[in-house]
UniProtKB/TrEMBL annotation:
The keyword Repeat does not apply. The keyword Mitochondrion does not apply. InterPro entries: TRAP_TAXI (IPR011852). Residues 43-60 have a biased composition (Low complexity). SUPFAM superfamilies: Periplasmic binding protein-like II. Residues 24-35 have a biased composition (Gly residues). This is TRAP transporter solute receptor, TAXI family. Residues 24-61 are annotated as: Disordered. It comes from Haloquadratum walsbyi J07HQW1. Keywords: Receptor. PROSITE patterns: PROKAR_LIPOPROTEIN. It holds the Pfam family NMT1_3. It comes from the Archaea.
């Protein structure tokens, strides 16, 4: 059932102009379908899909790109889907993806309306710098909505390996994350910062990386996500795992090389058999959108999420209006600005 506050906000922000905007997004008339629109900057983008509910009222389906099913982005995005659909007239189509870098591309070409990405990747993309994918090619339509929670850098190995520090990764086979993911970017940033260049790189999502560890196909894996990460939890139930710390001089070296990293700690007991807290670093997870999405739509979706945090079960200790701009690395969408300034 929709909360009265969010429902009123939805009706208020839509108004006459908003109705026109949503009608323009329907693209396929009575049959729904996906169309295109051109925003005020002349950018051609894919639009949301209009559809009719059983009650005969029209709802608008928005595309929300998450991450791999073994991380935090995907289950959290599905909780967002439930909240939005219970509190607005919008429907979210949540898709599993390769996460941050891929999601930026989907926002850039209009195939996603919202996506979860890392704050450092957002900065690189908007400014056309930092990594090869964006170097000299800024993603001008990228806009921020809100930051959510720290994304912990977790380096996981099996307890019977000879890896207990970052330096021990030299000469090893390492899964640095999916191609096109923020995890891959962060892993290579960290390895380069501490001078590790002699390693064999594998690229796969969190779930597959856990299988590779269990099968002995890799020596260690980088995982970036809010703890506990499901894939590591699953691995720890069948194997003795060790979390490799990023601490002391290594941690400071990494932070000096990349200012968006912050100190973080994985609490003792987060994963089965890991009984001591592990020092590491983190970036921030954030919701991003694009200029082609209607301001009223962004304001309504943002309101639904932040006015109903008590309906979530994942990362609720971090998600709040008070912290939603901490670490925001790019310009806000005008719809998000409207919500947070009210």
């Amino acid at each position: 059932m929709q909360s009265d506050q969010t429902r009123r906000r939805f009706l208020g922000v839509i108004g006459t102009a908003g109705i026109v905007g949503l009608a323009g997004c329907s693209g396929g008339g009575d049959t729904g379908g996906e169309g295109t629109e051109t925003d005020t900057d002349g950018e051609t983008t894919a639009t949301a899909e209009s559809m009719e509910t059983e009650s005969g009222s029209e709802t608008t389906r928005l595309s929300w790109h998450a991450g791999g099913t073994g991380g935090t982005y995907f289950p959290l995005s599905n909780e967002f889907k439930t909240v939005v659909e219970e509190n607005t007239e919008f429907s979210l189509n949540v898709q599993s993806t390769g996460a941050s870098v891929e999601n930026v591309g989907s926002l850039a070409d209009g195939s996603a309306d919202f996506a979860l990405i890392q704050n450092d990747i957002a900065f690189f993309a908007k400014n056309g710098t930092g990594i090869d994918a964006f170097d000299g090619n800024p993603i001008n339509n990228l806009r921020g909505v809100a930051t959510l929670y720290p994304e912990t850098i977790t380096v996981v190995t099996l307890a019977d390996s000879d890896i207990s520090t970052l330096s021990d990764l030299s000469g090893k086979t390492i899964n640095t994350g999916d191609l096109g993911s923020g995890t891959q970017v962060n892993a290579n940033q960290i390895l380069e910062a501490v001078g590790i260049t002699d390693f064999t790189e594998q690229n796969a999502g969190f779930s597959q990386a856990s299988e590779q560890l269990a099968n002995g196909d890799i020596d260690a894996a980088f995982v970036v996500g809010g703890w506990p990460v499901g894939a590591i939890e699953d691995l720890a139930t069948t194997n003795d795992v060790e979390i490799v710390p990023i601490e002391g001089e290594n941690r400071q070296t990494v932070k000096d090389a990349a200012s968006w990293f912050a100190d973080d700690t994985i609490p003792a007991g987060t994963y089965s058999g890991v009984d001591e807290a592990t020092e590491t670093i983190a970036v921030q997870a954030m919701i991003a959108t694009r200029t082609g999405v209607d301001a009223g739509t962004v304001e309504t979706v943002t309101a639904a999420l932040f006015e109903n945090v008590d309906a979530l079960t994942i990362k609720t200790e971090f998600i709040s209006t008070g912290s939603a701009q901490d670490g925001m690395s790019i310009e806000l969408h005008e719809g998000a600005t409207a919500f947070f300034e009210n």
